[in-house]
Design goal:
The protein has helices at 2-14, 25-47, 53-65, 73-83, and strands spanning 87-88, 95-96. It is mainly alpha-helical and 102 residues long. The chain has a two-stranded antiparallel sheet with strand order 1-2. The chain is flat and about 60 Å long.
C-alpha cells in the first residue's frame, strides 16, 4: 500500500498539474498491461451473477475516459428537454437549445 501511495506522489511530483493518474506513464503502463485480465474478471463475475460494482464501474470509467466520442446524444437531448441545458453538435460550433415540444 505504501509503495502505491509513493507511485501516486511521484506522479504528482513529476507533474503537479496532472489532471488524472491515467495520464501518468507509470499508471498508463500498469492499466494497459492488466486491462485484459481486468475485463476477464468483470466478464466472469457478470456471467456468474456476482456483483462487482467497483471493478465494473472503474472499467467503464476507464473506457469512457480514453474514448474521444461517446454516444451521449440521447443524454444531451434529455437534459436539454427537461432543463434547457443546451447541447453541442459535431457539425456546428457553439451550444444549441431546441424547443422539443414543437
Amino acid at each position: 500500500r505504501s509503495q502505491f501511495l509513493q507511485n501516486i506522489k511521484e506522479a504528482y511530483d513529476k507533474d503537479a498539474a496532472l489532471k488524472n493518474l491515467l495520464l501518468d506513464p507509470y499508471f498508463q503502463n500498469i492499466v494497459e498491461s492488466y486491462q485484459g485480465a481486468w475485463r476477464e474478471v468483470v466478464a466472469a463475475a457478470v456471467t456468474q451473477g456476482v456483483p462487482v460494482p467497483g471493478f465494473s464501474s472503474a472499467l467503464s470509467y476507464y473506457d469512457s475516459y480514453r474514448t474521444e466520442r461517446l454516444p451521449a446524444n440521447l443524454l444531451q437531448a434529455q437534459r436539454d428537454y427537461f432543463g434547457a441545458h443546451t447541447f453541442k453538435r459535431l457539425d456546428k460550433e457553439g451550444s444549441f437549445h431546441h424547443n422539443w415540444m414543437e
